[in-house]
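User: Predict Amidinotransferase's structure from this.
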Amino acid sequence: MPPPSLQAPAAVVMVRPRHFTPNPETAADNAFQAHAAGQPPDETARRAYAEVSDAAARLQDAGVRVHLFEDDGRRHTPDSVFPNNWFSTHAGGHVALYPMFAPSRRRERRSDIIEHLKAEYRVQDVIDYSGLEQDGMFLEGTGAMVLDHVARIAYTAQSNRANAVALERFCTHFNFEPMAFATADAQGQPCYHTNVMLCVGTDFALGGFYLIADPQRRAAVRERLREGGRELIELDARQIGEFAGNALELTGRSGQRLLALSERACASLTRGQKAVIKRSATLLPLRVPTLELAGGSVRCMLAGIHLARRRVAFSEPARAPAASPGDSDCIAQADNISENNSAAALIEQ
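Assistant:
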């Protein structure tokens, strides 16, 4: 059994969307976004719903604890499937709520999810940065920042969604060192989120380092990652476009480390790159082609839980109360996931 890793959470929050669609409010600075040509919106939404269900089941089967919540569609939140942007959790019982760039994304913040985490985990405090939206300052969680939870470094690509003042405040409160850098793709556009170009695991890091505009800064980022004992896996432009950088290391059954990523991302990796990953983690490719139309992939779908669990003894598993369709405030404990379950599901291992 590998030693426990602060970098690889054993639990995640996921949100299953009812009315998924690529978000026009975020299209201007998200070069990864696309449209389902010739596909009716209802079919796009149905496929997205099924992809989240299947991905959650695959994670569960691998031993990851999944907290699955429903988005009933009443808030008009087309990007709700990406909860890692509006909150993050941290060892010691800390939770952060983030200021979001697009108005529709601000509606994704949900008190029921935070209250559920408080009930299941030891939460000491919740620091809410969402008020910075009124000052035009945004910091979209672990999309804007890729966090090294061991060395306490917040790698951050500068963008509309990663304000320098907001980053400094987060790093001061949560004891991270900010490491910001400018990026530019072939068209000269910055990466909208850091987590589409960088994944920091326990023993490796996948990165599109070529996107870091300044050569000295690029070298500094590489060096800091190597100082943590990580082997660097260089991703090229094609692989970044296939979401190979948008992956998350998790801890599964018996402490086995997993690298969750999309099938598309996994297929883009070379045999040598996969060999480096497999030395410390098992590849877990998930099929999410519809969800990737919104400009994010598997890592964006997973809000890692770095909190300590509460220890509560149950004589038998709790049963889910009856829930009406679209009831997103009901928390159920379930042994499996089905498309007919409209309550939020807590999947135990």
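The domain at 11-347 is CATH 3.75.10.10 (L-arginine/glycine Amidinotransferase; Chain A).
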